[in-house]
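Feature request, filed as a ticket because there's no other form

It would be nice if the structure record came with a short human-readable summary line next to the tokens. Right now we just get the raw output. Example of a typical job, pasted below so the devs can see what we mean:
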Amino acid sequence: MDRVWRDPISDDEMCDLVRSHGGEPEPGWWDRIRRHSLGWVAAREEDGVLVGFVNVAWDGGDHAFLLDTKTRGTHQRRGIATAVVASAVTHARAAGCE
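Raw output as currently delivered:
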């Protein structure tokens, strides 16, 4: 499983990920939110399927926080969320955030 900082994610992929664990996606949400984020981490299977995600929101300064951690329903309890969160923390700290 690859974890990539600011990996290109389409709104359709995000909707699919939300649906995969029983959520109700809001089409267009990711397209609106992404430009306001410090970054995000995407976890993908070898075939490119999005299986995990976390968004790093920030205040434009030195404060960042995590939102919207998601794991594909069929991939839960495998440590994916833990891995994307750890990666997000590393990248937020590298950007100078607390």
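Something like this underneath would help us a lot:
The mean pLDDT is 96.
The radius of gyration is 13 Å.
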